[in-house]
Amino acid sequence: MRLLLFLLITALGLMAQAGPSTRELNDINWMEFQEWAPSRIQTVLLPAGTLEAHGVVNNGADNTAPVALARAMAPKINALVAPVLNYGVTGSLDGFAGTFSISEPAYRAFVTDVMTGLARNGFRNLIVINGHGGPQTAILNDVAEKIGREHRIRTLVVNWWAYCSDVTMKVFGEDGGHAGWNETAFIQAIDRELVHPERYKPSQATARPAAGAWSAYPFPSSIILYQPGQGYPKFDQAKADAYFAAVVEKMTALVKEIIAKWDEAKLFQR
Ligand SMILES: [Zn+2]
């Protein structure tokens, strides 16, 4: 009787299970992966970042942000999360301590093989959640399109901070910046231990030059304001939490919409 009850509870538990025991490719085993993908899970989120100085938040902010985003989004869109591409093509902040930059050919080759692996594992929708801009974006866009064409899988690359710039305006009432109020707040919402307001000085910020105006190497500040006079970090926890929630919502809605349109147009049907 007790055994029957136990079996019944286990069976009900399995039926109620809305997803696999983990949504992380890093943590799932091959048997559970086989049970879920691609038969019941067709979407994979691939976070991409780099190690780059970010004002008074962690050098790995561009990894921390897309990983947290992907984890928050995955259950809402029934996706798995691939390990983050945590070394990237950094650019003119690579003179700061603790930064790394991967050469473009090496990055392109590595990313091509990672995306090929995700395609070979049967995913139908490959969504890159990119946390770092500059030349890295163009490489990700190009490689994702090539892999999509070659393997007939649907790919989307989103630069979360750019797609959600209207959320920045709405939550903070002003534009943000690289390691500015918005990005610092995003990290603060994820893990406040990674934010060091005691080290902050407004002189650590420089406004981004207008196109063609000037160019400096190394760029003199790791806080780069999109607009002069806007986006200085202010460390407001309530705004940080509101921003994180609104970004997750907007990013989730975008991915849902694009997948629904791919489905409606019957693109790369299986
Ligand atoms: Zn960043």
Index terms:
alpha/beta; Rossmann fold; three-stranded mixed beta sheet; binds zinc ion
Explain what this protein looks like in three dimensions.
With 270 residues, the chain is of the alpha/beta class. It has one domain (21-264): Creatininase (Rossmann fold), CATH 3.40.50.10310. 44% of the residues lie in helices and 11% in strands. The chain contains nine helices and seven strands; from the N terminus they run ααβαβαβαβααβαββα. It starts with a helix and ends in a 6-residue tail after the last helix. The structure holds zinc ion. Zinc ion binds at residues 54, 61-62, 132, 178, 183.
- What's the total number of strands? 7
Mean pLDDT metric: 95
Which structural category fits the helices and strands? alpha/beta
The CATH superfamily name is: Creatininase
SSE string = HHEHEHEHEHHEHEEH
Helix content: 40-55%
CATH architectural arrangement: 3-Layer(aba) Sandwich
Distance between the first and last residues' Cα = 46 Å
* Whole-number total of structural domains: 1
Unreliable segments of 5+ consecutive residues: none
Strand content: 5-15%
User: Class, according to the CATH hierarchy?
Assistant: Alpha Beta
Ligand kinds: zinc ion
Broad shape: globular
Tally of helical segments: 9
